[in-house]
Amino acid sequence: MLLAAAVASKNTALADAIAAFQALTPDMRANLVAAIDVIDGAPLVGDIESMIEVRLRMLAPRGKAALAREQLEGWWWPRLCATLQAETPSTIPVLEVEQKLDDIRDSLKRDALPFDMEHVDPPPEELDTFNEMLFVRQLHSIGLRGSRLLHAKRDFYRASTQRSHWARRNLLFDGEVARFDTTLIEEWQPRFAQMSDGLSEDCEDTPLRDAGRTLYAWVETGARFPLRTTISRFLNVGSYHILADDLRVGWHRDYRTILADQGDGGSNGG
Q1: For residue range 35-84, what is the model confidence (pLDDT) as tens digits?
Q2: 3-state secondary structure of 59
Q3: What b-and-e string marks burial along 59-84, b requiring 16 or more CB atoms within 10 Å of the CB?
Q4: How remote is the C-alpha of 161 from its chain's centroid?
Q5: pTM score, two decimals?
Q6: Are 212 and 95 in contact (CB under 8 A)?
Q7: Residue 49: is it exposed, middle or buried by C-beta count within 10 angstroms (0-12/13-18/19+)?
Q8: For the chain, how long is the longest CA-to-CA vector?
Q9: Which residues share a beta bridge with 230?
Q10: DSSP class of 171
Q11: CA triplet 85, 91, 93: central angle to 5 degrees?
């Protein structure tokens, strides 16, 4: 039937495709046609988003079906591409999709915020744009280099992007992030004061750097405070870097003096 249609066709736009089909051997044509599935009544591509949202309304809280669909698509497309590009053909288990839907449902509970930047790795060129920022200079001032510096840039990117996503989606209560930042600052203040008390006025640079790295190590592995009901490592660490970029917190005892010509800081009480 296709060969007959090809002979009868006057459609010039399909001429190359028709010629390619006619050039196949009979077995190749049969295999190609056998692999075709005709799905009658399939939705138009422009209708798919709304159809997915209808299916997700029983899973997502009221008014959050679109957000659930965005999170599902954000996970699905990279997962699908990885499967299609794998050297060994495989499938995506239904159980994996169900587990992702469970995660999305839990993240969209009324008292929870969706975390969609938790495992996002920014491109290296994006991280390079941070090199002159104050939070990076702060880390340089205590001698931080290598992978720890790369992790700091990554967490800054994740936290700042996540906070922007929440703001654009109107998911934050008034003053919620400001109160979270205040908690971070007030947890830092006594620790910074304790560090400073243990250093003499004429302390050499090496002890100052060592003390600053010890304080920053607390941020990396110990500073975990909730935003609403969720505690997230990348949000805590990345938010500290956001505050460090505003000079509202610091790691080196003399961070304000060192970076005074690079920007203005807020009140930190330290």
Answers
A1: 999 888 888 888 999 999 998 988 887 778 888 898 899 999 999 999 99
A2: coil
A3: ebeeebbebbbbbbeebeeeeeeeee
A4: 7
A5: 0.63
A6: no
A7: middle
A8: 94
A9: 227
A10: -
A11: 135
